[in-house]
Amino acid sequence: MKRIYKIASLLTVVIMIASPILALAGGPGFGGGVDDGGNTCAVPLDGGFSILIAAGIGYGAKKFAKKKNKPSENA
């Protein structure tokens, strides 16, 4: 069983090290006529980002309600 864990951990480390190398992106492949105004690292923060914000707000509201409904130890 220890051998399986060693192999799995080694494979995980190799994937973690190799993934940034495999994820390197080249320049735009649409030709040289595309002008993006000098902004070369434009990242759309729309769908996933708003879901993360909503999840954070929901989690905070849940924690706040749980803390509010908890009986006080001083009383």
Short description:
The chain is mainly α and 75 residues long.
Describe this structure in words.
Helices cover 59% and strands 0% of the residues. The chain has 75 residues and is mainly α. The model has no long low-confidence stretch (mean pLDDT 76).
Helices and strands, with pairings:
Elements: H1 2-22, H2 47-69
Q: Can you count the beta strands? A: 0
Helix and strand composition category: mainly alpha
Question: β content, as a range?
Answer: under 5%
- In DSSP terms, counting alpha (H) and pi (I) runs of 4 or more, how many helices? 2
- Helix content class: 55-70%
The radius of gyration over CA amounts to 24 Å
Order of helices and strands: HH
Name the shape in a single word: flat
User: How many strands, which pairing sense, and closed or not: the largest β-sheet?
Assistant: none
Task: Please describe the structure with a list of short key phrases separated by commas or semicolons.
75 residues; mainly alpha; flat
